[in-house]
Amino acid sequence: MDQLLHVFVKVAEKKNFTRAAEELHMTQPAVSQHVQTLERLMGTKLLERNNKYVKLNKAGEIVYHHAKEILGLYTRMNHLIDDLMNRASGALSIGASYTYGEYILPHIMAELHKQYPLIKPAITIGNSNEIVEMVSNHQLDVGIIEMDIEMKDVYIEPFAEDQMFIIASANHPYAKKEKVSIDDLRSETWIVRETGSGTRKATDKLFSKYNFFPHDIMEFGSTQLIKEAVEAGLGITFLSQWTVKKELSFGTLKLINIDGQPFFRQFSFITQKTPFYTKAMEVFLDILRKHRTSANSLAKQ
């Protein structure tokens, strides 16, 4: 059954029997036969076919959703059995939000590879909501996010504290003042991340805390793009210490000093709720926890 599901998932994702057959290293008739066998077992058609593509019908969408979960659980079961006889090794799928994934995770991965070279990680970067959904759907072994969530089907553990600051270009008038009132920033153009990101949620909390709603907001889907725009003088922003470390040291970006700064939030990891982790997962989580102190402070520059 697992092979039937694997072939079906590949056809659904490629939307084409030929492309699926090429990736699976099978013949097209063999792929078609696997799908037809699965349809007979399900008692219904799962795909709508024409000369150019195939697509899932309603029944196919249900089977595809659960097939992804089943295949993920099957792979994980095999890894757990392998771990009974072997040292930490094998595949480990890791998801991370943009801030942690792009600015901190590379250092964690370097240490993981140095200590456990047989672990083969695959990294997915997305906003926090996307990472949560992928862990919940068994598409990732572990996710690292930068926002609070309440979900019953995943385990959540805060493991590090992050500091966040209001950031402006080096030439911004407020960057040269010792102290600025938050009300002074009401008329500024604020450049923020998209809804669903942990940074956007932290920004919204900042606005809510001060009962503060800027007149002009621009929404960008990339932290790097936000930094470039702020550096160019387009507006100000609210970002993690880790995302602006280099720019602060080079002097191209500056902190705007307001009362109550820095602001704090938590980095958390999420996994499936289970009493069993692969050895690869266990050692990765141990490394994360050991790095909690290194992610907790950045001296003002």
UniProtKB/TrEMBL annotation:
Q: Which SUPFAM superfamilies match?
A: Periplasmic binding protein-like II (SSF53850), Winged helix' DNA-binding domain (SSF46785)
The UniProt record lists the HTH lysR-type domain at 1-57
Q: Whose protein is this, by species?
A: Anoxybacteroides tepidamans
Which Pfam families does the protein's record reference?
Answer: HTH_1 (PF00126), LysR_substrate (PF03466)
Q: Name one GO molecular function term.
A: DNA-binding transcription factor activity
Question: According to the lineage, what is the superkingdom?
Answer: Bacteria
**UniProt name for this protein:** DNA-binding transcriptional LysR family regulator
User: What are the record keywords, sorted?
Assistant: DNA-binding, Transcription, Transcription regulation
